Amino acid sequence: MANTQSAKKRIRQSEKRHVRNQSWRTRARTYVKRAREALAAKEVEAASSAVQQAATELDRAAAKGAIHHRNAARRKSRLMKQLAELKESK
User: Which of 48, 61, 85, 88 could pair with 24 in a Cys bridge, judged by C-beta atoms 3.0 to 4.6 Å apart?
Assistant: First the structure.
């Protein structure tokens, strides 16, 4: 356990950040999951809108600092690549 006042404060701060970031990360994951499900169902229109929403949520989570901006970019890139493959096959 922490001994100094500054260490105790740091623990309190990190716990607050953890709770706040957790909700943003969960929200982003939910939208990514919906996008993957729409892509798996091979519905171009639904997948296109779902991927767009997922990209928005990932950007939002990155802006809040809940996830790293390159993590968000990588996830968006993978979703967009899958969407392009789906559109190409149709």
Answer: 61
CB 75 within 8 A of CB 56: no
Residue 58 near residue 34, CB atoms below 8 Å: no
Cα–Cα nearest to 67, from 33, 34, 24:
24
Per-residue pLDDT of 27-47, as tens digits, reads 999 999 999 999 999 999 999
Q: Tell me the angle at which helices 5-40 and 69-89 cross, rounded to the nearest 10 degrees.
A: 0
Report all structural domains of the chain as residue ranges with CATH numbers, in order of start.
14-89 (1.20.58.110)
The structure's pTM equals 0.87
